[in-house]
Amino acid sequence: MASHMAANRHVLWRRFSTETNLLYVLFQQGDDLPNLEISGIRMKSAVPSVEAVLRASIRELSPLAGVCLDTCGGLGYTAVAMATAPRVTRVHCFEVDANVIEAARNNRASRFLFEDPKIVLRHADVFEALVDFPDASFDRVFHDPPRVSLSGDLYSRAFYDRLFRVMKPGGKLFHYTGSPGEKSGKRVRQGVMRRLADAGFVRVRDVPEAQGVSAMRGSASGPENGAAY
């Protein structure tokens, strides 16, 4: 099985960055969407497929409308999916790693990240950039940070507080965590759920099929029911 999968792997682009000391490999496995591997760590789960996980994640933000935030753009699949929704007016997409942006430029499946006029792509650290946005700026937020060992601040209560501030009452959040292993992934999600609830989010729940956590900022009229984790 492993040798068969390796035979179906087609490398589209690769770069070793002397700045980050990391190897970036854009590849495609079979007919699935291209994926990015950074020093052996895949950005997106390919189980059951990159496309299937993307669809499940986007469903958690439906109905898509208004102004959206994609905190860690990667190859841009999420930003593009949000921008295609007719009721979405703008998607702010952040990516801190210039090498990842270059990988997206070399990925035909990412072309609308650069071509769709609804998408504003910024090469910046979203943790710092959110300070510049007014309160209640976003209707929908997709948060897909690198794993905890690489970007712990993006899993922190401080960052979730910033997300809460810039979200509109009634706004929806999906926080992708991936599944680095069933037991390990579950522990990551439990910590995420606890901190989101502490930051004020409601309707916090584990969504295994989308490999992440769904949450909502409560309405201005009063507390929501079902704030659990």
Explain what you see.
The protein has 229 residues and is an alpha/beta fold. It has one domain (46-217): 3-Layer(aba) Sandwich (Rossmann fold). Helix content is 30%, strand content 30%. It is built from 8 helices and 11 strands. It has helices at 2-7, 50-59, 77-83, 98-105, 111-115, 126-129, 157-166, 182-199, and strands at residues 9-17, 22-29, 35-38, 41-42, 66-70, 88-94, 119-122, 138-143, 167-176, 201-207, 212-217. It has a 7-stranded mixed sheet with strand order 7-6-5-8-9-11-10, sandwiched between helices. Helix 7 (157-166) packs across helix 8 (182-199). The protein is globular.
Work out the radius of gyration: 17 Å
Strand order of the largest sheet: 7-6-5-8-9-11-10
Tally of domains:
1
Number of strands: 11
In the CATH hierarchy, what is the class? Alpha Beta
Proportion in β-strands? 25-35%
Provide the CATH architecture: 3-Layer(aba) Sandwich
Basic shape: globular
Structural class: alpha/beta
